[in-house]
Design a protein that fits this description.
alpha/beta; Rossmann fold; 12 helices; 16% strand; globular; binds pyridoxal-5'-phosphate
Length: 338
């Protein structure tokens, strides 16, 4: 695979670290757990969307666009990082937020809401849950065009084939680090939402013939819906890369049951995971993605999914600001469902 064929902006210097988590591994009595710190990617603060935006923003600039348009849930990390990339590139940014939980947007709220204002989004439009956000973004682009401006639409989560190249690059980065450190990973575990991260990793590892299985922990869907979505994304990415051969359907595996009661709403296992990682390893997780993904990994370890000799790599995809919008919940001061 030759990723240098694709225009790319650079928002992170070098590779993100891979850290061994000895205290967590010992507490769980399972495999050795490692963590790739993609919460340390560049931008303000970075996360998995930083990698996708390196390719998406390069495309926007190549097309001469002056405004990034994107959408997300109200505490969207993707919207924050897109806005952050726009600020760095001297572009304008318009955000369209979907209130999947009624009345959850607070323009003067904490976490990402605060950062939308601080980094100066040009407009923030809030829509009720279930709105066709693709159509809404197109209307925004049309309105800009009518003023002689040029918007670039980035799909929710930055998840199209171009964005997923960011996680093809991450797969190659992991293989290089693995070779450098002499540590072979038996499995990679990652949160799986709009699918670009999971799908890009699967396409990249397959394209490199790495034969390392990936388990995605669904943050909004159980496997019957999540796996087809990720598979489609992985296929589109493999096609963009011009990979030969048929990516097998069973390269995409996801686990359900950890995101309920609803996307972005807390549960007890997420709270346990956030507390464990903070207290055992001084690693901050977020309540919507990495807390639930780590709860999934802890659940898999307890269910005997791995051998004690295995080395498992968890990808920390970021999300820090929303932790500060959920302090009472993660401290266990609020009662939450199982
Ligand atoms: C968006 C996001 C994810 C999910 O990644 P997808 O590519 O949408 O599947 C995971 N973790 C964090 C912190 C995110 O912001």
């Amino acid at each position: 695979m030759d990723l240098s064929r694709f225009p790319r902006r650079r928002y992170t210097q070098g590779a993100t670290p891979i850290e061994h988590l000895p205290n967590l591994s010992r507490a769980l009595g399972g495999p050795n757990i490692f963590m790739k710190r993609d919460d340390m990617l560049g931008l303000f603060p970075g996360g998995n969307k930083t990698r996708k935006l390196e390719f998406l923003v390069a495309d926007a600039l190549a097309q001469g666009c002056d405004t990034l348009i994107t959408c997300g849930a109200v505490q969207s990390n993707h919207c924050r990082i897109t806005l952050s990339a726009a600020a760095k590139e001297g572009l304008k940014c318009r955000l369209l937020l979907e209130e999947r939980v009624a009345n959850s947007f607070d323009a003067h709220g904490n976490g990402n809401h605060f950062m939308f204002e601080l980094m100066g989004a040009e407009t923030i439009d809030v829509f009720p849950g279930g709105t066709d956000m693709t159509a809404a973004m197109q209307r925004t682009a049309d309105a800009l065009a009518a003023e002689g401006r040029k918007g670039y639409i980035i799909p929710g989560g930055g998840s199209n084939a171009l964005g997923a190249l960011g996680y093809v690059a991450c797969a190659l980065e992991i293989l290089a680090q693995s070779f450098e450190s002499g540590v072979h990973y038996d499995c990679i575990v990652v949160g799986s939402g709009s699918s670009g991260t999971h799908g890009g990793l699967v396409a990249g590892l397959w394209g490199a013939n790495a034969q390392i299985p990936v388990i995605g922990i669904g943050v909004s869907r159980d496997p019957d819906l999540q796996e087809p979505l990720v598979y489609k994304e992985a296929l589109a990415t493999a096609e963009l890369l011009g990979l030969r051969g048929a990516l097998p359907r069973d390269a995409v595996r996801s686990i359900g049951g950890y995101w309920q009661p609803k996307y972005s709403l807390p549960n007890r296992r997420m709270v346990e995971a956030v507390q464990m990682l903070a207290r055992l390893e001084a690693v901050p997780l977020d309540p919507t993605y990495t807390g639930k993904a780590m709860a999934g990994l802890i659940g898999l370890v307890r269910a005997g999914e791995f051998k004690p000799s295995d080395k498992v790599l968890f990808i920390h995809t970021g999300g820090l600001p929303s932790l500060f919008a959920s302090t009472e919940v993660v401290l266990g001061h609020t009662s939450v469902p199982d």
